[in-house]
Amino acid sequence: MNGDSKIRAIVVDDERPARRKIIRFLEAEPEIEVVGEAANGHRALEIIQRDKPDLVFLDIQMPGINGFDVIEALEVRPLPQFVFVTAYDQFALRAFEVHALDYLLKPFDLNRFQKALAKAKGELARRKTSRLDDRLARFLDEVRTTQFAERLLVSSGDRAFLLPVDRINWIEAARNYIKLHAGRETYLLRGTVEGLIGKLDPRKFIRVNRSRVVNVDFIKELHRWFHGQYRIILKDDTEIVWRRRYLDNASASFISKL
Q1: Does residue 12 sit in helix, strand or coil?
Q2: How far is CA 153 from the centre of its chain?
Q3: In this predicted structure, which of 18-32, 46-60, 94-108 has the lowest mean pLDDT?
Q4: What is the rounded average pLDDT of the residues 148-171?
Q5: Could you tell me the domains of the chain?
Q6: Alpha helix (H) residue ranges in the chain
Q7: Do residues 248 and 206 make contact, with C-beta atoms less than 8 angstroms apart?
Q8: In 3D, which of 249, 245, 171 has the Cα closest to residue 163?
Q9: Beta partners for residue 230, in sequence order
Q10: For the segment 75-92, what is each residue's pLDDT rounded down to a tens digit?
Q11: For residue 232, what are the CA distances in angstroms to 186, 219, 240?
């Protein structure tokens, strides 16, 4: 990027409404030119390597290759400026702040977006390539060595708080959201089951069918059912079917202990 050219931006998010929102905000900025978008990590790698953008809005929670994997696999230098997009208030948010990397926590509004964009523009104007690369390397080292999420940021009415994951009985998909069942309370998070399951300890949380995840500490009974499947009964008497295709070696080990 030089002083006379526009900032070339790419938007990466597996949710189309989220991509559309960011692109709409960017198109209102005369200094920005949106040169591409990607719905998954594989496509993101292709277009970043090919088009060498100045700025990338990068979703973290994507199935398959996530946002962190994309950065680690990139071979282009200098690296683009990143604004990370995430639906979960987890360990990574503290790391963003420590390493002066900006992020957008879904759902975000225009005001928060503009603050993130202004910071990215400032970094691009004064960037030192080696400094950015070093910061990203330290950041990735930290998030890769951090354990699974212990709390999730949830909303209840007009307040938000950190919910310990140990309180979650089970999780289900609800269109563009995830519904967390914690005792008699339920909370909504924007995102997908695929995005969340990778952040939870697999020794405690098992995906039992396409749209549901169960905390094993809340399983009361397990019954054999049709076609090699199981019927799970939780401690609150909720019944969930454990589909055969979601049984793996780890699941078999767990079942054998019951």
Answers
A1: strand
A2: 13
A3: 94-108
A4: 82
A5: 7-145 (3.40.50.2300), 157-256 (2.40.50.1020)
A6: 16-27, 41-51, 67-73, 91-98, 110-126, 129-145, 193-197, 249-256
A7: no
A8: 171
A9: 224, 242
A10: 777 788 889 888 765 545
A11: 20, 7, 5
Amino acid at position 125, single letter: A
Give counts: helices (H), strands (E), the chain: 8, 15
Q: What is the DSSP letter of 6?
A: P
Amino acid type, 122: G
The answer to pTM > 0.85 is no
Instruction: Render 74-126 in DSSP notation, one character per residue.
Output: ---SSPPEEEEEES--SHHHHHHHHTT--EEESS--HHHHHHHHHHHHHHHHH
Residue type, 80: P
Q: Give the whole-angstrom CA distance, residue 140 versus residue 95.
A: 9
